[in-house]
Design a protein that fits this description.
By secondary structure, the chain is α+β, with helices and mostly antiparallel strands. It has six helices and ten strands. It is 35% helix and 27% strand. 42% of the residues are buried.
């Protein structure tokens, strides 16, 4: 059931390059009356960490809130930024805790989380991209697609990704992959793009930069 929620979720793509990591998500605007800017599919965890989701958004918020608290606690305790793998591990540990009761309290969650995440970040090991699933498993990738249309998207990534890809090439590749699998015509209203780089940290691209990249595609 929970993998089905992800299979039906928005297509989400992540690409790692030597310069940084790029995340791209399809935003499904199901009504012309819906304000597309209110659909959040990519979120900041810390200044050097971001996350994109596919599946149940409410579940993703719970996991991302946990990741944010973990990152802040680490920074406060050790006076350093948390490693990308450490925050991914914390999210997956939370995913494994459904059905558990703590200190005689009722169980925190009665079911697994119905969401998969792509966690992008940068630390002393350089740019990194991790994929997490509802089972609490995480794997590191150079390029990964999740959500509906992920098989076709992953195949395209395998064909086009290379080790010396620039950040701009990664932006264009992500948009092209989304364009192939999306039912709607791709424009700046129905996609969201973000990047993590050494110089600027995590940032979600604004409408102007997004329009430029779509035109360049």
């Amino acid at each position: 059931m929970f993998n089905r929620a992800i299979k039906l979720g928005s297509t989400t793509v992540g690409v790692r390059t030597p310069e940084g990591v790029v995340l791209a998500v399809e935003k499904r605007v199901q009504s012309p009356l819906l304000e597309s800017s209110s659909i959040e599919k990519i979120m900041e965890i810390d200044t050097h960490l971001g996350c994109a989701m596919s599946g149940l958004t409410a579940d993703a918020r719970t996991m991302i809130d946990h990741a944010r608290v973990t990152a802040q606690n680490h920074a406060f305790t050790y006076d350093e930024r948390i490693k990308v793998e450490s925050v991914t591990q914390a999210v997956c540990d939370l995913a494994l805790r459904f059905g558990e009761s703590v200190h005689d309290e009722e169980a925190m969650m009665s079911r697994p989380f119905g969401v998969a995440l792509l966690i992008a970040g940068i630390d002393e090991l350089g740019p990194q991209l991790y994929h997490t699933d509802p089972s609490g498993t995480f794997v590191r990738y150079d390029a990964k697609a999740i959500g509906s249309g992920s098989e076709a998207a992953q195949s395209e990534l395998q064909d086009k990704w290379h080790t010396q890809m620039t950040l701009r090439e990664a932006h264009i590749l992500n948009l092209r992959v989304l364009k192939q699998v999306m039912e709607e015509k791709l424009d700046h209203h129905n996609v969201q793009l973000a990047q993590v780089t050494q110089s600027s940290g995590f940032e979600i691209l604004d409408e102007t930069r997004l329009k430029d990249l779509i035109e360049a595609m």
